[in-house]
Design goal:
Blueprint lengths: L6 E2 L1 H4 L8 E5 H7 L1 H4 L3 E3 L2 E8 L2 E5 L2 E4 L4 E5 L4 E6 L4 E7 L28 E3 L5 H16 L3 H18 L10 H17 L6 H8 L3 H12 L3 H17 L6 H7 L5 H12 L3 H7 L2
Parallel strand pairs: 1-3
Antiparallel strand pairs: 2-9, 3-8, 4-7, 4-9, 5-6, 5-8, 7-10
Helix pairs in contact: 4-5, 7-8, 10-11
Amino acid sequence: MKATIPVYDICTVSDGHQHPDLLTERLGSYLKENYQRVHQQHGHSFYHLVLFTGGSGSHTLDFTRYAVEPWQLYFMTPGQVHSWHLGPETEGYVVHFSTAFFRSFLANPDYLDRFPFFSGQSPDQVMEVPEKLRDAIQSVFEQILQAGADNEPDLVRALLLQLFLETDRHIARDGEPGVPQQKQLVLRNFMALINRHYRSLRLPREYAEQLYITPNHLNALCQDLLGKTAGEIIRERVLLEAKRLLTNEQKTVAEIAGELNFPDNSYFSRFFRKYVGQSPEEFRKSLN
């Protein structure tokens, strides 16, 4: 049986850097140091940010491939899987920080969940920086690099929060003008609840109760903003986690079914085939 997909922690990739919960580096240097790691599919136990300022190639985030373009910004959360296939001229910035990095800095431990690009849903995590914002965003990354080199983690935290807020306000998809803030807030809270409870809660009404709205209201909101029903969004999250788990060939399909709270292996296999078009075993083989 093949070895499990590599899952790197912050210490693995931050070896030799000053802070155990942080890495800030120019992308070109990072790629040279980690060439073997980044070109194979792998996971992270930490948050991962990249701004491409030049270059070409592609990167795959949770089984969706994106073409690399200058001024593309993307975010990755712990537990996701990805790989890079980049040209030698690719440049930009990379920032890693652990789940503990903001813990003592923010009173609300779930503060990062408010941002759509930390939802764990890849369409929300890859975006283009508008031309009018490029100088300002690059300046923030340069300041983050300098603060990291000076071993000033609190300054890095403040600059990262500035980056998150500016990205949320001006770049993120659901921050576009014309969408009422209350609708955006309910959708964000719904997505955050799904990320916490998708293993145990599968019905829209269970989430609607926690959001203090009716199931019909929740469905209408999801259809309006995402073009999908609430049930489809919950199901997509379960399928995404199933795909992530299937990258680990040391886990049997039966173990994955149990981990995702399916009553048995055959029910999980039928569910997976219905919506993916392949059995779990066929999907696993297609990754090779």
